[in-house]
C-alpha cells in the first residue's frame, strides 16, 4: 500500500529537516517495550541501561502508550516540530495542552480490545491524562534519552547537515533517494511513501511543506499523525546510529590502504558512516586530533572530503569522489 503527499511548488520550497527531543523519546518506547533490539543492535546497551533505570520513570503509563497489536503511538505525543528548534519543555507543554477529545481519540487507536487498567484510567480523565503523559515523557526523557543525548544529538545534527546539503545540491529527489527506497519523488509534484497503510491514499496540499526527522529508533521510514489532518511528516533512520553502540573501528579494504595509506583510509571509512568533526574522528580512531587534521587536509586537497560549519563545529564529509573511492 502507498501514501502519496501532494506538494505545491511553495510547499516543496518549505521542505525541511528537523530534530525533535520528544519524538526520539516516543519512538524509543517501541524498543523499550519489545523483547529485545532485534535488528537494532546499536541499542542493546541503551536498552539494558534504560531498563535498569525503570524506577526513574512511569513504566505503566509509558507502556500503555504503545499499541498491543501494531507499531502505533498516540499522535498527540509526537507534536510536529516547529521551524525553530523545539526544546523538550516546549514539546511537553504542547502535549499537556492537548484537547480532551483528541486525547481520547488517539488513545482509543492503541487497542482493538478492551483497554487495560492503565489505559482505562487515562481515558476516564483525558484532561488530566494529557498532563500526566507529558510529565511521564519528561521524566522518561531525562532517565533514558538524556544519558545518550550529547552523542545522539551530534548524530542527528550530522544527518540533517548531510541531508540539507543533498537537498541543496540535487533537490528533493536526491535528498529522498538517499533516505530510503520507500520514499520516492514523483515528477508530478508528489512524494510517494510505500508504507504499511491499509489502503492507497493521496493527501492534497496542506500548505505546511514536507517535514523530515531523523531517528535512531526506527528501522524504516514511518509517517506521523493522520495523513488527512497534518502536515506531511516522515521520520527515517538516521545515518551513523551505530555510534550509539559499542562498535569496533571498521578496517578499510587493503586496496584502499595501499592507495592512500592506512591513516587516511580509516578516515574515509569513518566518514562514509557519518559526517564527523576532527575531534570525533580522533576519539573514534584512537589517534591525535593533529594526525587527523593532517590527513583531512590531504584528503580535502584531493577532492575526497569537504567541510561544513554547523554552529561552532566543523563537520567533514565524503564528496561524491570520496564515496566512489570508498566503494571501488
From TrEMBL:
Keywords annotated in UniProt: DNA-binding, Transcription, Transcription regulation
Entry keyword annotation includes Transcription: yes
SUPFAM superfamilies: Winged helix' DNA-binding domain (SSF46785)
GO molecular function, one term: DNA binding
Domain of life of the native organism: Bacteria
Domain HTH arsR-type residues, every copy: 244-328
Record-linked CDD domains: HTH_ARSR (cd00090)
The protein, known as: HTH arsR-type domain-containing protein
Organism whose genome encodes this protein: Rhodococcus rhodnii LMG 5362
